[in-house]
Specification:
The protein is built from five helices and 15 strands. The protein is α+β, with helices and mostly antiparallel strands. The radius of gyration is 19 Å and the shape is globular. The relative contact order is 0.18.
């Protein structure tokens, strides 16, 4: 258990297993919250260009973690494909992910709507962020960030925008206010980011990814438009915009502790704990956090 801002991280299960989860709790209200629905998108004054980002994957790590859209309170868990945990391969010269990777709460890339720039439907996830500051953030951290620009990844035929952001407390943050500032003060980072997203699936036998506008990095204003669009898509989802067409909600859990106008009624705190315990029991009979598996066992999981 550790604290980030007003949010407390609760790790359950064992890292690098199917049962591992990170839940978030608001320490001020003593309620478990959803990092998808309950953490506000905007941090403070909306005109200040400061937003909350939920870190799913710390820099240099390989486990593909993400906000679990289908479970109550949307804990962070490791992505699974064909019953196996997903890890990204190291793409030379990088070890795992080259930034703190995460998502913006209260955003949704709607899979029912075609994105105008990429020509593809959304990927059904919260909007992704690459946090480029110098600190390695813990999984489940809620970090205040500035938006600098965005890259339009097309991932297996889906629109998958990647916002470039920086922790507002980073020593270099004051110098970075738009995408051109990144190239000026961190030369080569944007090219490396594009190359990473183009190539990271090649070791698994898949083709290189493609991009909107031949891999151009769009500026802050464009990125903020994407953010506003995806926030509106989330608001439509949480307010019941697809209630008459449940298949378009893609099985997403809308359980929310704080969103007053969501279609899911606010739960009392004892009911929240009950739901969390039920979610833990489903995946792991022992809810306490256990240290990660030995490295040999991790290699075995990756190979088998």
């Amino acid at each position: 258990m550790s604290t980030t801002s007003t949010y407390v991280r609760y790790e359950r299960g064992q890292l690098n297993t199917l049962g591992y989860r990170v839940y978030l709790k608001n320490s001020e209200t003593n309620e478990f919250v959803s990092p998808f629905h309950d953490i506000p998108l905007v941090s403070g004054d909306a005109s200040a260009n400061v937003f909350n980002a939920v870190i799913e994957i710390p820099r240099w790590s390989n486990a593909k973690m993400e906000i679990n859209k289908k479970e109550p309170f949307n804990p962070i868990s490791q992505d699974v494909k064909n019953g196996k945990l997903r890890f990204v391969n190291n793409v030379f010269p990088h070890h795992g992910y080259m930034w703190n990777y995460g998502a913006l709460p209260q955003t949704w890339e709607d899979p029912n709507v075609k994105d105008a720039t990429t020509g593809c439907n959304g990927d059904n996830d919260p909007l992704d962020v690459c946090e480029i500051g110098s600190k390695i953030h813990e999984r489940g951290s809620v970090v205040k960030v500035k938006v600098l620009g965005t890259l339009g990844l097309i991932d297996e035929g889906e629109a998958d925008w990647k916002l470039i952001v920086i922790d507002v407390t980073d020593p270099i943050a004051e110098k970075l206010n738009n995408i051109g500032d990144v190239e000026e003060h961190l030369p080569g980072l944007l090219d490396a980011t594009r190359d990473w997203f183009r190539n990271y699936k090649i070791p698994t036998g898949k083709p290189a990814n493609s991009f909107a506008a031949d891999g151009k990095f769009f500026d802050r204003e464009f990125a903020l438009d994407i953010l506003k669009h995806d926030h509106a898509a989330w608001a439509n989802l949480i307010k019941g915009g697809y209630d008459s067409e449940p298949e378009k909600k893609k099985g997403i859990s809308l359980l929310s502790a704080t969103v007053a106008d969501s279609t899911t009624a606010k739960r009392e705190n004892d009911e929240v704990f009950k739901l969390i315990d039920e979610a833990n029991a489903k995946f792991n009979p022992e809810p306490a956090f256990i240290e990660t598996l030995p490295i040999d066992a991790i290699h075995y999981i990756k190979k088998n």
